[in-house]
Amino acid sequence: MMAMIQYSLEKKLNFIKEIKFATIEHYTKNKSVWAPSEWGTLVRNARTNPGQIEVLNLQYSEFLNWKEFADSTYSSNLKSTNGSIIQTSKFRYLVFKKLDNGSVEVHTYFSFSSTGESSLLSLKKKSKKKSVLTQCYKRHLMISLQKRNDLFKLCNDSIISCSMKVV
User: Fold this and answer.
1) Which member of 17, 48, 51, 164 lies 3.0 to 4.6 Å from 35 by CB, making a disulfide possible if both were Cys?
2) Residue 96 DSSP code
3) pTM listed for this prediction
4) Residue 59 pLDDT
5) CA–CA separation, 136 and 65 (whole Å)
6) Which helix (H) or strand (E) holds 118?
């Protein structure tokens, strides 16, 4: 995700200078999602103090392979500018700032308060060659016949509600 935000700030978002990003609170734990159409509602409700947020449903062709892009661009060990290794699982709050020269600096916070101590990430690219974004999926993803039959059985047994049935 960091590669996606940094790429967007550097290449696509000309008028945005700063993006603040926090981990989603624990609202999403132990929630049942019966259909893809429910993901938007789950994301909208995941924030305890939501502002205006718009969730866009994407088509399969709009998913880009950000993992491959990030792996080819950045090293697996993130370091701060003082040389200490930073664990991404400890992030709670990130601030991406676009500098006047077009580069992006990333400040990491380990609590939800932006007033706490932060670390400035040292983002050095892995290689000099340009990384290219590719599409994740070339066609619709298929499910096996066994999974399809299991889904139909769940629908017929009313475990999955009728409103979620799509034929």
Assistant:
1) 164
2) E
3) 0.52
4) 81
5) 5
6) strand 118-122
